[in-house]
Design goal:
Blueprint (H helix, E strand, L loop, with lengths): L10 H30 L2 H29 L1 H19 L5 H29 L2 H32 L2 H22 L13 H11 L1 H31 L4 H29 L2 H17 L6 H17 L3 H9 L5 H29 L2 H21 L7 H20 L1
Helix pairs in contact: 1-2, 1-4, 1-5, 1-6, 1-8, 2-3, 2-4, 2-13, 3-4, 3-6, 5-6, 5-9, 5-12, 8-9, 8-10, 8-11, 8-13, 8-14, 9-11, 10-11, 10-14, 12-13, 13-14
Length: 411
């Protein structure tokens, strides 16, 4: 039985390695702050470590886009797997705070190379009318990783120790590397960039400044809320006395809600537009973040995490798909690198802001601040960002009209 397009060309090259990597990455998002908290005894240090992982992502956004433009998607994907596996392997031997800080940066860089690589691969492989579904499936796989990864990681960390959990995650990334090495097509850029990288990036920023100021700010807010959620849920769990395995169970139950929404959300985005899921998603995030300060134990933390899972599920693939819609032909890799950079400023800024607010005030202040930003982002998305699903089709129509015009002139 043959799978329908575009899944037939994405199943083994993209979805299968993504499943292994998602399992490992999602386990890390639980284990990293908990391990940092155990080693240092400081919630602010745990926030700093998560922010440093974000710094690694941030530092590699534009370089990864330029590398895709020069060498193609597959080379960047493979490099990402190597960085992830090496960083996770190193974490298994990290017994001092400075070692955790040092390894958090390449852990983030590897994640970004892998993420932008498959994002560009799907953009090149799928027509615009199928990108929402294709991307939502891969984003749903990340959610499946969030369903099983934190639970398994928490159990392994509690029973065998954190080093064993890190080694298992490194092995999964190694398997993903081998699958991509043998089965992912070597998609080369149409016109490899050879010089003027900074000039190209500057031109992209100038030509799309309004896009980055509006849609880019919404992407940044989404990433702030996501990163803050991933940091604060385990820290609130520790605050009320829950064990790592119990916190992992809460993560996984919330991910179950998240996963159940992934594919329907992709269909809805392709059929009705990106805003139809984006605005309700922000409502879910704001409600969940507002519930965290009132957590008293397992059930109240679960309720807040489930609401955050609804918010995250409704935004499945949203930031990526909007970036794909907006990316200009011929400069996709470079544009997506800048797009990811803007979003990842929020990914880094979320934990940094949370750490400052936790140190100065409380965990509750950090949660409520992120929720307030969500309200602002929702208003910008609703009022100032156009429906991006129409943009690729409008470009195709313009190109068709231009081609017809040239044909008439030649005749």
């Amino acid at each position: 039985m043959r799978l329908p397009a575009p899944y037939d060309r994405l199943l083994i090259p993209v979805y299968l390695p993504s499943a292994f990597t998602a399992f490992a990455n999602q386990a890390m998002l639980l284990l990293l702050p908990l391990y940092a908290l155990q080693v240092s005894g400081s919630a602010a240090f745990a926030a700093l470590v998560m922010a440093l992982r974000g710094v690694g992502v941030l530092l590699f956004d534009v370089p990864a886009g330029l590398l895709i433009g020069r060498f193609g998607d597959k080379s960047v994907l493979l490099g990402g797997f190597v960085l992830l596996a090496a960083s996770m392997f190193g974490m298994s031997f990290a017994a001092e705070p400075w070692m955790i800080e040092l390894l958090a940066v390449p852990l983030g860089a590897g994640h970004e190379a892998w993420f932008l690589g498959w994002m560009s691969y799907i953009t090149h492989s799928c027509p615009p009318e199928l990108r929402g579904q294709a991307t939502a499936v891969n984003a749903g796989i990340q959610r499946l990783g969030a369903l099983a990864g934190p639970l398994a990681g928490g159990i392994v960390a509690e029973s065998l120790g954190y080093p064993a959990a890190y080694l298992g995650a490194a092995a999964l990334c190694g398997i993903a590397f081998l699958i991509s090495l043998f089965y992912t097509a070597d998609v080369r850029p149409d016109s490899p960039a050879r010089s003027g990288h900074l000039k190209t990036i500057g031109r992209i920023l100038a030509d799309n400044r309004l896009v980055f100021a509006t849609a880019g700010s919404v992407a940044m807010v989404f990433q702030i809320m996501r990163a803050t959620r991933q940091l604060l849920v385990p820290l609130f769990g520790v605050l009320v006395g829950l064990e790592p395995a119990t916190i992992g169970l809460i993560y996984s139950l919330a991910a179950l809600v998240d996963v159940s929404l992934s594919y329907p959300v992709g269909i809805a985005m392709d059929r009705w537009g990106r805003k139809w899921t984006g605005v309700p998603s922000i409502v879910g995030f704001v409600l969940g973040l507002s519930m965290l300060p009132f957590v008293q134990g397992f059930w109240t933390l679960l309720a807040a995490a489930l609401m955050l899972g609804v918010g995250n599920g409704l935004s499945t693939g949203l930031v990526m798909i909007i970036g794909m819609d907006l990316s200009p032909p011929g400069q996709r890799g470079q544009f997506l690198g800048v797009w990811r950079l803007i979003g990842d400023v929020g990914w880094v800024g979320g934990p940094l802001l949370a750490g400052v607010l936790v140190e100065a005030f409380s965990l509750a202040a950090a949660s409520l601040f992120a929720g307030g930003l969500g309200i602002l982002g929702g208003l910008v998305l609703l009022l100032l960002v156009p429906e991006t699903s129409r943009i690729p089709r409008e470009r195709e129509m313009e190109q068709t009209d231009q081609s017809s015009g040239h044909g008439d002139n030649d005749a």
